[in-house]
Amino acid sequence: xxHFAMPKRTDTFELAIVFPDSERPAxxxxxxxxxxxxxEGRLGPGExxxxxxxxxxxxxxxxxxxxxxxxxxxxxxxxEGSIGSGTYVSSVxxxxxxxxxxxxSRAADRRPVTRPTQRRTSDYANRVxxxxxxxxxxxxxxxxxxPALDLFPASLWAQLAARRFRRASTSLLLGxxxxxxxxxxxxxxxxxxxxxxxxxxxxxxxxxxxxQEALDLTARILINPxxxxxxxxxxxxxxxxxxxxxxxxxxxxxLDKEGIELRPSGLxxxxxVYVTPAHQFPLGITMSLTRRLQxxxxxxxxxxxxxxxxxxxxxxxxxxxxxxxxxxxxxGSVLFAGSFSKVLFPSLRLGxxxxxxxxxxxxxAAKSLTTRHAQSTDQAVLCDFITEGHFGRHLRRMRGVYAxxxxxxxxxxxxxxxxxxxxxxxxxxxxxxxWLRPGITGKSAWRAAAARDVDVIPLSVYDLSHAAPEGLQxxxxxxxxxxxxxxxxELAIALQNSRRA
Length: 501
Ligand SMILES: Cc1ncc(COP(=O)(O)O)c(C=O)c1O
What we know:
alpha/beta, binds pyridoxal-5'-phosphate, about 500 residues, 4-stranded antiparallel sheet, elongated, 7-stranded mixed sheet
């Protein structure tokens, strides 16, 4: 539940006045319009009215007309104050005035109107469900999906932003093309080709508001209600929810140690496959080369599209970096998406989608009709962050920190959680999974851990077919050494209690 702080009252807004349609003089019509605003509670007691000069300019009336209307309202007790010190709605309105229109208070006026019983909503509206965002609570062990935000170089970012605004050109303040700020698209293309083995030109890069928007755009462009979409199971629920909201039928495919299993029964009639090959979410499996080639071959033959979600692949601690599936594709079957949410910070809401040439116009059109383009000044700051080398430095630094945190977690778990939880030594990402011994369910472990101020996520949360293995997802990236020690100790007690129960 979000609570919105009430903004401070301000008298700098322009006052919207609807003048009654009549032959009466302008000052009289202004008087009537302001009087009804006061009686309806739209202008509340004590509220300051705009200066006569400003109102005159706004409505192209003479200042004398405004002064006459104000004087009349003052004489009747609606307004008080004097020229120079400002004009206010009277704090106590005469009783008889309130009896003329006791109707609505300002608070009532602002209350949302309840839903008319007969309103029809679209099929989309009936299907769409809320995907939870980040809860703003203190970080504790083992909060998954969370980078170490306290180590983000915020003052450096602020300097780059200040410089951009100091030198802001009119064109930057106006906006950019639907697919994004050109220099950023070039920088992202360079980064993806050097670091991820992606084959693309800068024109193919669409700057989006995170992978989530990339999923939504892709689904709207490629999926019709009733179409089949294949996802990994367990998998990223936020992707399945996008597809379901557009009426797709989901085939949730199991995983083996090479990645998604390509079962003919699940793939039949599939239009789109969503995969996380670099680092499967949530199990952390890296898709084998054989499986990648099989998937591409199937897509080529069937005409289906593959959505490659490359989330968190920047953080690889061991093994060789696995180049993107997109880089192996010779058929334009793969849409490759990644995000700056975890490498920089989540509220930035910037990510990228590598779009095959033939779909570029469709994506640009869809973007132009929705957000028009991602926020352009943030894109420019991000572009500077990348091209001036800060991005590479930040990645290297965080990779070192996270690698240390992962190895500390593995060591402590070896000492304290043996026999209770087998932690996988993942090769990449911000979290890992732990497999529970028979007799403890993920849900009971999660409850017992929460009671001891430890965050874990039961893997059943990511299960799309309700046959989840019993395990937990544990984040390590945002957790410092002291909190890690506390977390492992408390988790051990929680799991022992849970086993006994
Ligand atoms: C696997 C996976 N893909 C995509 C996303 C969405 O990322 P973004 O913040 O870029 O929208 C998430 C978010 O947690 C995720 O876990």
